[in-house]
């Protein structure tokens, strides 16, 4: 019975993901194919009775004069559009007032510095989900380069009152 439930959860996740990915790739909300370098993918949340909170990718155009990281994080911190909230029932765990401080990028690594508002409010589950939103959004742009997270200029090891671990670089697996 437990195996059947696990299979059901996986199947539901795949169906939900493919439905939303299909919607995004059909340009319903500015979707783009993966080869389009003038767009970025960001991740918002959607409640699922079977799976809890899942991440849903959406795309945004990169404005002239902006880079992918600036665009992706600014859009992530602004949250889903009204249309995405109403039609796709998307939400975010990112606290209002969170902002990008700066991005430093070179051939070896990428440093993402965000404001401490990102760490305010919510419990450990909210902190884990917001970190996943941030992590997936950043790593989608990084294309394999190591990315390090800073909060108000300081490299972090944990975030939130419960101490959600932040692996540095962000793509590193936790033990």
Helix-strand blueprint:
Layout: H1 2-25, E1 39-48, E2 52-61, H2 68-78, H3 82-87, E3 100-105, E4 110-114, H4 124-142, E5 147-151, E6 154-155, E7 158-159, E8 164-165
Parallel strand pairs: 4-5
Antiparallel strand pairs: 1-2, 3-4, 5-6, 7-8
Helix pairs in contact: 2-4
* N/C terminus separation: 29 Å
Helix content: 25-40%
Count the helices. How many? Answer: 4
Strand order of the largest sheet: 3-4-5-6
Task: Flag low-confidence runs.
Answer: 2-35
What does the main sheet amount to? 4 strands, mixed
Element-level helix/strand string: HEEHHEEHEEEE
Protein model, in words:
The chain has 175 residues and is α+β, with helices and mostly antiparallel strands. It has one domain (2-165). 34% of the residues lie in helices and 24% in strands. The protein contains 4 helices and 8 strands, in the order αββααββαββββ. A 4-stranded mixed beta sheet has the order 3-4-5-6. The longest helix has 24 residues, at 2-25. The radius of gyration is 16 Å and the shape is globular. The protein starts with a helix and ends in a 10-residue tail after the last strand. Mean pLDDT is 82; it is low at 2-35.
């Amino acid at each position: 019975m437990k195996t059947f439930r696990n299979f059901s959860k996986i199947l539901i996740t795949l169906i939900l993901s493919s439905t939303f990915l299909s919607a995004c790739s059909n340009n319903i909300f500015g979707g783009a194919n993966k080869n389009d370098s003038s767009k970025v993918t960001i991740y918002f949340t959607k409640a699922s009775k079977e799976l809890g909170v899942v991440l849903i990718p959406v795309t945004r155009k990169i404005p002239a004069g902006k880079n992918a990281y600036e665009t992706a994080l600014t859009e992530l911190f602004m949250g889903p559009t009204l249309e995405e909230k109403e039609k796709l029932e998307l939400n975010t765990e990112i606290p209002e007032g969170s902002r990008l401080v700066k991005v430093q990028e070179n051939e070896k690594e990428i440093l993402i510095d965000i404001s401490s508002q990102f760490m305010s409010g919510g419990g450990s589950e909210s902190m884990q989900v917001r970190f996943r939103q941030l992590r997936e959004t950043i790593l989608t742009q990084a294309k394999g380069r190591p990315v390090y997270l800073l909060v108000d200029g300081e490299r972090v090891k944990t975030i939130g009152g419960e101490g959600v671990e932040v692996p540095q670089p962000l793509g590193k697996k936790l033990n």
